[in-house]
Amino acid sequence: MKGISHFISGVAVASCFPWAVAAALEKNPAYFILGAAFGILPDTIDFKFYRFFYRYHQSITPDPRRPDPQAIADRIAEAVSASLDQKGMFRLKINTLRLSADQWRQFRIRFDPQRQGVEVELGPVVTTGQLPVPGSFPEADAAKGWARLAAPIEETYEAVTTVDIFDGPAFGFEQDADGRVNIHFLPWHRSWTHSLVLGAALAAPMAAWLGWRAGIVAFCAYAIHILEDQLGFMGSNLFAPFTKRRLKGLHWMRSGDALPNFATVWFCCMLVFWNCYRIIPDPTYHFGFIRLMLYGFVAPLGLYGLLHFLLNRKSLAREPIDSANEWGEGF
Prior knowledge:
Elements: H1 3-15, H2 18-25, H3 30-53, E1 58-60, H4 69-84, E2 90-94, E3 97-100, E4 103-112, E5 117-127, E6 144-148, E7 153-155, E8 160-163, E9 170-175, E10 181-185, H5 196-210, H6 212-229, H7 258-277, H8 289-312, E11 321-322, H9 323-326
Parallel strand pairs: 1-2, 7-10, 8-11
Antiparallel strand pairs: 2-9, 3-4, 4-5, 4-8, 5-6, 9-10
Helix pairs in contact: 1-3, 1-6, 1-7, 3-6, 5-6, 7-8
């Protein structure tokens, strides 16, 4: 999910504890602030710190003026071959094709388990807003490259990755016991930082400093972030350091999908409102939780979903993963 969804989820978790709401009414928002901070902390560590220290065995930097999709495909195939001779994961970084301050050459990487190969296809020049520049599509005969891989592959994410603006994607190639090479998208993301064990370890100092109530709020806010991420494609390493690999996500949504993010933010707003309302001694209006959610969440969200379906039913086919949109580190 996007950062704003994790942020407000942490606030909503804090509001579920009566002592947090009572403190806020006494002009002490510390628990709400703590929930917000821990709600976004796993991605903050990943995107603002860890990824800059992550080390790769190999990187691919295509020539932006004369991009060669075949050369990119061949280099990816070489990385897969190198993973067969290495113990552990072989880490590959693929850089973007930046043409100017506001223009980038888009390309797509598609792993094909059935044909045991990888295809790289050049796309149009796009702006930083990801809008195609008219007349910038490459010629068809020079737009694709294909390379056969040295071993069968197993996808742990999605087969197609779109690369265009800002930072490029990373892949981890690792051979399993069956001789297949598992392909891990963004191996540095949602690894040890997205662990319930780490959440407990980080909450412990908060408990020692601010009291056990603060520790509970911090841990629950950290945990809700991780559990929300399990709804997506990438999953998380829930019990690092006792486990080494990410568990597969449920594939219910993508982190950049508008409707799940909007629904999460709106539900959390309703939950915060309810948790504040329920401790008012003599409210002017009286209603229950179910009534609030029915009229304040289900009805407007259902109307939005219906309008979205009617207006977009002709273009409901999902686009391939867009790296810049899928990472979800921004608000």
